[in-house]
Structures are given as C-alpha cells and as structure tokens.
Amino acid sequence: MNRPLLLLLGTGAALGLNFPLGKLAMAAGISPGLWAALISAGAGLVMLLIVAVTERRDLSRTSTLWFAIVSGFLSYVVPSALTYTVIPKIGSGLAAIMFALSPVVTALLSVIFRVRPPNLISIFGIVIGLAGAGIIIFTRNTDFSGGAASWILLALLIPLFLGAGNVYRTVAWPFGASPRKLAAHTNLAAVPFLALLVYAQTGTIDVMPLASIPALVALQLVVSTIMFLMFFRLQQVGGPTYLSQIGYVAAAVGVVVGVFYFGETYPKSVWVGAGIIAIGIAFSTFGQAKKD
C-alpha cells in the first residue's frame, strides 16, 4: 500500500483501538507495563514470522540492530515510562495532551534538522488537527489534576521523544530494509527495556494473569500487528510529520469506540472536534501531495 492517507487512517484507527483494549486489560488486573511488553513481544514475533515467510529472498545485508534499539527506546520505552510516571501526578487528561503535541514537535524537529520538512499547507493542517484533538481531550477529561510544574515539565518530554523517534526513523532507515522487517526488529528490541520497566514497577515479571484473558490478548495482538505493519510503511512513504498525525485519528476513533462499545455519551463539542480533525488531515494530505 503506497497511499499515505489510507495508511494514516488505518494506522490511526488501529492505534485508537489499542486504548479501549488496554482499558479492558487494566480492568482485568493487567499492569500497563506488562500490557505494553505483550504488544511489542507478540506483534514483533508475528511480524518476524511474516518476514520469514514473505521475504525469503531479501538481499539486504544492512544491520538493523542499532536502528531497532534506538527506535524502540525513543518511541516505545521512554514514552511508556514517562506516561506511567506522570499520570498519577498530573492526571490522564494532561498526559493525553502530551501525545497530541507530538505532531507539532515532529514538525518542528523536521524543520530544524531538514528531514522531509512539512510545507505551509501541511503545517496549517497540523495546527487544525491539534485544535480538534484538544477539543476532544478537554471535553473527555474534565477532571484534570492540578499537577506541579516539575511534573508537567517532565511530561513535556513525551512529545519530544515521540517526535525524535519519528524523525530518527526517517534519518536512520537502514538501506534496503523493508518496513515489515524494521517493524519486527524494533518491537522486539523494545521488549527487554519494557520488561525491566515492569520489574521496576512491580518487583516481578508474572505473565500468568494474561492467561485469564486469552481472547483479549489474541485481539490485541491482531490489532497491534496490523498497526505496526502500516505504521512503518507510513513512515517510509509519508515521512515523520505526516506519520505523527495518527494520534489525531486515534483520538477520533476512541470517541466512536466509546459510544458504540462502552455506551459513553459526549457533548456536541466532541463531534465538532472530530470534524475539525478530519479537516486538518485533509489539509495535511493535500500539502503532502503538493510536496511530493
């Protein structure tokens, strides 16, 4: 698939499904760190199998080890650790805003380091999308905690690391390596770090609780595998800034899932926010097409 818009929508939709699946897992007593490790380990192994079956004649001999370690550390491990650290201090609403800031940070880093920088149309779309995401986040999270300034400053590292990871993958993409191979290797490289995070939080690494929710585990692995397969392809064809907007799509998908599965109700402003996100993505897609 080479169409950035379809990849953006597909990746963002899969990302949006991760949140309600994680919510169900937490309700079943699974720790956030263990669930994150499951996603990387399970999706990584499935994608590794896909690569082994579909890319037997891969002639690339470029090492992906360093790329996988750095990419996994920047994009998965550090944001996860920071999120679990700051949510008890500043609340989930402000933490969600930090993820919504990642497209803006990615765009800034892309311009500073001249890595497929967005044009003015794309930047306009990003700003519009941020406004829409902000409406959804603020409306869905009316119980913002009054966090100390130091914790908020720490939380601001989340979009910084996400943006750095987005830019790094474009800059350091190993020559000739396929998106599927990099997706598999990056996820597997993150597992040891995530396992250490779980141990630091709980003092143990007990995977037995996962056996109590086999259907949910299987569904999560399917969703996360599909997401990462599209994610790395989107990185390749769309660049870091366009990729970063998957968070906007995920915010809108989260609203839809909340309504139809969890029976949640939202004021009209949430749906207005979803519409604004759609307008922002349309501008960004148009800007991407003009640039290419």
Please provide a written account of the structure.
- With 292 residues, the chain is mostly helical.
- It has one domain (4-291).
- The chain has eleven helices and no strands.
- It has helices spanning 4-27, 32-54, 65-100, 102-112, 120-140, 149-155, 157-172, 179-202, 214-243, 246-260, 268-291.
- The longest helix is centred in the N-terminal third of the chain and has 36 residues, at 65-100.
- The chain is globular and about 45 Å long.
Strand content: under 5%
Provide the succession of SSEs: HHHHHHHHHHH
The general outline is globular
Strand count, sense and barrel status of the largest sheet are: none
Classify the helix fraction into a percent range: over 70%
Q: How far is it from the N-terminal to the C-terminal residue, by CA?
A: 16 Å
Write the layout of secondary structure elements.
Blueprint: H1 4-27, H2 32-54, H3 65-100, H4 102-112, H5 120-140, H6 149-155, H7 157-172, H8 179-202, H9 214-243, H10 246-260, H11 268-291
Helix pairs in contact: 1-9, 1-10, 2-8, 2-9, 3-5, 3-6, 3-7, 3-8, 4-7, 4-9, 5-10, 5-11, 7-9, 8-9, 10-11
